[in-house]
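Researcher: Here's my situation. A collaborator sent me these components and asked whether they could plausibly form a single complex. I don't have experimental data yet, so a predicted model of the whole assembly would be a useful starting point for our discussion.
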Amino acid sequence: MSSLLNTGRPPVFCPGCSHERITHGLDKAFQNMSLSGEQIAIVTDIGCSGLFDTFFHTHAFHGLHGRALTYAAGLKMARPELTVIVTMGDGGLGIGGAHILSACRRNLDITLLILNNFNFGMTGGQFSATTPSEVQVGSGFLNRLERPMDVCRIMSSAGVAYAVRCSSYAKDLAQEIENAIRFQGFSIIDIWGICPGRYTQRNKMTPQIIEDSLAKLPSRTNPIPENIRKEYGRHYRELAAEQKPVPSPAKIETKFHAPDFGRKEVVILGSAGQRIITAGEILCLAGLTAGLNVTQKNEYDITVLRGACISDVILSPEEIGYTGITSPDIVLALSQEGVDRRKHLFDHLDKNALIIRAEKIHLPPCNAKVQQPDFKAQKIKSSDRALAALSVLSKLETVIYPDMLESALAHRFKDNILASALDLVRRVEGLGA
Amino acid sequence: MAFCLMEGNEAIAWGAVASECRFFSGYPITPATTIFNTLLKLLPPLGGMCIQGEDEIASIGYCLGASMAGLKVMTATSGPGISLCSEHISFAIGSEIPIVIVDVQRLGPSTGSATRGADGDIQFLRWGNSGGLPVIVLAPVNVKDCYFLTMQAFNLAEKFRCPVFIASNKEIAMTRENIDIHAIAKPEIIERSAPPPGKPFVPFETSSGQLTPYFLPIGGNMPVRQTSSTHGPDGYITTDSDKIAEIQERLKTKLVSAVNGFSFHESYPEERADTLLLTYGVTARAAQDAYKAQKKYGKPVSLLILKTLWPVPQDLIREKAGNARRVIVMEMNLGQYVREIERILPDKKIDFLGQMDGRLITPHRIQEVIAHV
Ligand code: SF4
């Protein structure tokens, strides 16, 4: 295969910049793999390493600092057959830290070339995530305060299955790059290099120093045995293929007439664990069986297993505009926490409003009628009281009818759960019974 | 008649699927999370993808990659997340990457209140990008709009190659409502247009009169360039001021000149009214109640509900304001879109009703303002 270098746009790095060697190493790897331009996407971010995409005749995606791996992941998920190469400097390594760690955990078949020259070249040689503490860079004394990170060590802890480091001057650089590209999963090459434009203005760095430093580091096996696993994209597609298609949203045919009392506002005041939101939903579904318009809003604490839980439901033959409830027609008071959370609501209740109250609930003074079914005597446990209260409500025949409620249950539940729900609503006594 | 019971977020997810969106990426955040939850069920069985990003920056980044690979993409978040998306919103604008971005607004500033509604991001959506070029923002009023406008949003994103926002609100997103989803007419689905064959592909080139460049995907048969840098038609960085000016102007004009073609709204004019209620989003529901009540009591007002907020549908607003002497602008913030109305209608008396406490503006409050001359 011929070179994929863009002859119209030759590299423009400072003389002696090791990025130039990596450009050629990458081109050589492409050639050795017989890849053509449209089979490759080079994804880059900001800095001198971010110029890479312009030097090649391939697909190119140049974006924001540190974010290249995110675009690469989107491309690779959408086009699994594409060879996706990301170049990033040691700057991108820092600002894109979260993305690199995620890429390691995810193991999507992308190759990341970290062009590691120990400082920010383009912006003036400031310290990066890999700058040694003892060197002189463009950030004054600040790099003396921080420790450089060991890329391969961190990435292998994060789960990458292939992470090598090598020198830009290595004779087998093209081979190293090819090996990384051929690896089926996320692969990283931490390529150490020299930035004459900035770094070596004040610090000594030579190919020999790089080689000696690399030689001092412990050697690693690649792929990293404990991190070898399925490639993310293939695994994703495997699991996705097992997912059952979701039928289009269930329609509820109108088959009943609702009680003819106009718009009704119902507030269900309870606690976590009392299935308040499900009760609100069932009430809405019951409304739908009679062609009513409905809205349901819920309020619960962020710690979902504790605290008040409230559902506000409106049922109306007219279209519902404003969805707030100011003066409800019906209040189902099922827990003290729920009542306390909305204590001001009771100030606004008029004398036609009805409160269905469970035992031992203290209500603020109000004008509404209060009814108290004997749930305890009927052996209805706390988690069933919301549904039981709906049954009581249906038997009053002012908001919904019992057949609407039963039909709603049939839409919401199946099998045993449906049977026990129907049993419950049928055995609950109406008020005044 | 046959209704489904659905919350706004679910309707957005279904609207996305109906628009052939096949890639979603998002980060969990109340009150937007149920869009992610729903699409995680819907997309994989369709051969689509739903990804949980490590943060919102990544989530939208994945979308930009997948979009450039040719998929229809969407992300969804709320105030704190949309703030993080900012750099990628700018990218999508400047580099013409189609994407639908749902902002389910919650009460700010900052982390604010996760479960309280607001329309506090309306100017942020317009201006929260570097460079300040225009974007499209659509604002649903109810669950039906969530479905319908999502389909429109995808069409606009594809047609104009730009980010399109859906400015939802916790009060719509997490409110369940009846919706006759099967009765909502689906718009014809618009795709990005491929270049005519036979010529070399120049990614950002437009012929005279053409405002949106042709699209070829990254990963297709022809190498394609994409870049966040200031570029010429060839997709390479440029310092040529003329080329730069031309592209910036085109990015602006392609949306601003076309807004009359997508000025979604509802209008309820009353002949005898000297007051126009002007609003958007969930507040429109209270405004409709107030409008009906005023009419019933023989003191009618007109009502205009905007569903396209950006680019500002100026012609529509001027036309609907007509002879009204007074315009009352209502929104769930302390004064954002009202600035646009003051700018467009300098001859009218503009009154403002804003509220930013997590509660809905009530019909009663609107009627008080109407009465308070
Ligand atoms: S500044 Fe450094 S990294 Fe950038 S081109 Fe010059 S030598 Fe290379």
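Model: Some features of this prediction you could bring to your collaborator: The two ends of chain B are 43 Å apart (CA to CA). The CA atoms of residues 153 and 209 of chain B lie 23 Å apart.
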